[in-house]
Each structure stands twice: as C-alpha cells, then as structure tokens.
Amino acid sequence: MAAVWQQILAQDARYNAYRLPGSPQFRTQYIRRRSQLLRENAKVDHDPIIRKQYLKVRGQILGQRYGTSLSEQGSQRSRSASKCSSRLTLDREEGDFRGHRRYHSSGSGKFSLPSPTEDGLVPTRAAEASRAMVGDKTLDENYAFAGMHHIFDQHSQAVMAVKFANDDKARLACCSLDGTLSVCQVIPEPATVLCVLKGHTSGVTDFSWSLSNDMIVSCSLDGTVRLWQVPTGTCLRVVGDCDGAEIMSCAFQPVNNNMIVTGNKKGFVHVLNFSTGKYVKGGSSKASGSILTTTFESGGKTLWIGDENGCVYSFAFDVGTGKLSRAQRLVVCEGHPITCISARSWMSREARDPSLLINCGANALCLYSYPTRKPHPGSPFNRLQEYASRVSGVEGSLQLKRKFPIKQRNLRIRSGFCPLMSFRQGACVVSGSEDMSVYFFDVERTNKPVVNKLQGHSAPVIDVSFNYDESLLASADSEGMVIVWKREQRS
Predict the structure, then answer these.
(1) What is the DSSP annotation of 221-237?
(2) 65 or 84: which carries more pLDDT confidence?
C-alpha cells in the first residue's frame, strides 16, 4: 500500500503552501510529521478500498477548506512555478519527436529515429559476484525510496541543481534562482544548513563540486563564474564571461580541477583556467543556441554539451592544454531543449558500452550508448582521432537504447544514473518531472519500466541526486524545496 500513502502525501504537499502562508517552518514540520504518520499507518494491514476512499474524501475536504479543487490547484502552482523561473523557461510548441539527425565535423547526414537495440546494457545474470555486492535484491527492492529524511526550504526561488559531494553520503549542495548556494549536512541527524554562499547578483543556474570536495564552482545569470572554498564559505575568485553573456552551465574538468568549462546563453562553450583567471586559447567553440548542460566522461577526455535547439555536441578535450576539438553533433529532437546530459562509463568486467542519459524538452528521457571500438591495427590514428573514436566509434554512431516518458516541456529538468548500477542485474536511472514526481526507470525493461515513483513535492521536480552509497536521494523543485528521501528499510 506504499503507493496509496504516497498519493495521500502528495495530496497534502500540493495544499501545503496554503497552510499558514506566513509560517514556512510550520509547513515543513507539518509535512514531515504527516509523512511519518502515513508510513507507520501503511504498515498496518488495512482494507485497500478503505484507503482509496480516504484519499478521495480527504481530497474533497482539502478542496472545500482551501476553496479550490486539487486539479485546479496543481495547474495554478505549475503556472506559478513557470512564472517564477521565467528567465530560464524554454517555451516550445507541443509535438512529439520530429526528427533525429546525426552530423560530423566532416559532413552531415540524416537518418530516422532508430529502434532500441537488443544488446544488454548492464552486467548479465551470470555476474554472481557483482550481484552479491548489493545483496542479490531486485531493483524494486533496491530502489524502494519512500520516507522523507529531511526537508530543506532555505531557498526562496527555484532550486536549479542539487548534488551530493563526491564519494560523500553526508554533504549536499544546491543552487537557486534567489542568487545563493547552500551547503547542507544531512547525516547525522538533525540535518542542518552548514553555510549559504552569497555573492552572485542574479540567479545561480549551475554548480559543480571539485574532486576533493573542498571547492565549488558556480555560474549565474549575472554573467560570472565564482570559485568558493567550501569549509569557510569564502569566494576565492570571480571571473566574468568573455562574451558578456548569462552563463547557464559549468563543470570542473575531472582530471585537472584547475580548469572548468562554461556554457553561455549566446551558445559559446569556453574553457577557463581558474589558477590564472584567464580563458584558454583554443578552448572555445560555438553551438546552435544557448548551452544548457555540460558534462565530462569520467576520464576527462570527452566533453558533452547540450543546447536549447535539441543538439548534443561532443568534443575531444586536451587535458594538458585545455583545447577543444569537435568530434560530433547529434540532433536529438529539433527545436526542443537538451536540459541535462549524464555520462557513464559502466566500467566493469561484465559491463557493455559507455552510455549517455539525455533529458529532452519533448517529454522524453533518452538513453544512448556510444561504442568504444578500437581502430584496425596499422590505422594512422593520431591522438585526436583516437579521442574521436572513443566518442563516436569508427562509424561515428550513437545508438538509442531506450526512451522513457516523463513530463517535460518548459523547465530544465535533470536526471542521473544510479551510482551502484554497474554491480547489479538490471540498472536504474532517476529523473525529475514537471508533474511534481520523481521517477525511477529500469533501463532493461521494455514494458512498464517505472520501478518507483516518489510523490511529495508541490511543484515541478527540477533535479535529483544520489549520495554515493544510494542510502539517500535528494530532489529539488521549482519553488525552492529540497526533499531528502531515505531508502525503505526491509527485514
């Protein structure tokens, strides 16, 4: 009956903003206590029909109490959230995928959206050792996140990104359109806000943890990038965008944290050396529109970016010099923004091709693989060509493996791979959604791939993040609330 109590909690959460508008602390305490009581009640063996009747009656009572129906309120809150983040709203016409095209630096060509291939995406059932590492449980058991560990509401506007620190299950950071970032400690209890990073004069659009977690880089609509020292909350350096544009995304180079990559609203990607405060010569390139997401593969040799026009670009990145060389351009869905790209190597003795997880503003979450074929012996590949081969394979192809339905049209929804995926039979990805829910998808299921659905936000869920051991999941919404979910304990 977990699904029913989550529906009840979601119903309460949608009306929560109407309870004592001047007392946000009370609203937070109320929803936490409500979650606790519902979880305890769910353990009792009640008649399912009675639970559903309760859900219906409570909806009617709340509608009468606050003078609006649940459906009307949900649409009003969605519209309000859209207005709150109007500067980042990406308005597009309704429609399904209209095309899927592939381009190379040496030429271009068109092809229709391929059917998902049948190749396995994760370790096989014979991978007994890997399965034993996670207790040999089913995906449904492993991703039974339900209870709320804590709710953070220190931000007054949309939280655009939320991320746990690298290999750290206790520290969490988030950035908001209210112009601040916050660093939180979620365990041990009670969860607390360690510090609030203030300095940006406009909304913060993205941030990234350094490899050692002692630094955070952030970017903003004020056209600056800031480097923060996490333990003290001190801003160490401020660098303006060299095009004078609003900066939409940023990322540390995973191998050399002296370098970061930024993407701006004018469609330029730049490499910045933070040690010198100067942009790298040869470290710039142009996309077809505003760059909304940037990410590296784990080795740092390949950079992926996505823009507002539905294009994904890959670049060979020279770790020593910071120079970029374009390898490939892919149109995922023309005219619909690419709001998030996640890269996963899936390095395991049983794992298959490296993969990309892409959010597209056409109600779709897409999973691609990019084969790492080796050139034939004796082929005259230089270093750059080897990088390009790693990105696109000898034939230059990205293969669509899965496409999952989510609600995404107007907002910068993000997703991610589950950290322990390479050790299981089956694997999950998790994504936010404009319908105020968090979705878990099994990448191996072609029929009914939803493993879990978390309901509790009262606004569109923009970003999600696991801690490294998957004991906690954080989700952030367009009204500034961050919910930290804990794994359901099973005997």
Answers:
(1) TTSEEEEEETTTTEEEE
(2) 65
